[in-house]
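Journal club side-thread
Mid-discussion, someone asked how the predicted structure for our own chain would compare to the paper's figures. Pasting it here so we can look after the session.
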Amino acid sequence: MGAADGTSSGGARFSGRRVLVTGSTRGIGAGIAAGFLREGALVVLNGRSEDGVRAAADRLVAEGAPADRVRVAAFDVADADAVDAALAALHEELGAFDAVVNNAGVQRRAPLVDMTAEDFRGVIEVDLVSAFLVARSAARPMIEAGAGVILNICSVQSSIVRPTTGNYAAAKTGLVGLTRSMCAEWAPLGLRANGLAPGYIDTELNAALVADEAFSSWITGRTPARRWGAVDDVVGPALWLCSDEARFVNGQVLRVDGGMTAVI
């Protein structure tokens, strides 16, 4: 993975490497993108809105990221034609990616008996199908290069579930199976595919839940670490899974949840 000699320069694990992070305008995706930049990578930010992606890039540069290592690619990860066109253009410019992080995701909560088919399918498309589409396009040149990493951002809801999130739990559970299938097919060709399953993380997406005193108290009581997770708690494990340090880790899902899924 990465430079021809398999090493990184300047002490940064990802120097000279190219990384795509989908859904990276905010939250966990933005944190992971910033982490890769700190470690020397060239990072392509993604979101559906051109303005949103450029604003995210501007924030990273204002915070000290080198402008020449921050790229933007606005496209809908759930649109197969848009994914193939965007990835083809990126591959033409940059070559094969060394790592792709499938982070894009949405939630639409409702009891199953009240959930519309549109809301069920919509979450499946963004949270599961998009990972297949992006990984499929990214894997082709990775396979030619004989190296590359796919990291799928899963969830503790692939192991434990709550009412009103049936579509999300179904998508994230499917993503675990897809991750293992990627390993089965692509590991013999030199690729690695793993998942990272965050617990309850304090992000913009969860702002309403964090602000809900009763729910927040339940989360902190249910989590052995006795707190919500922070984005930075996820970044280190994500980068490790994409690094050479994890070169023999394949087809696994690492839970980053403060112990929530380890206890009853």
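Post-session note: Strands lie at 18-21, 42-47, 70-74, 99-102, 148-153, 191-198, 253-256.
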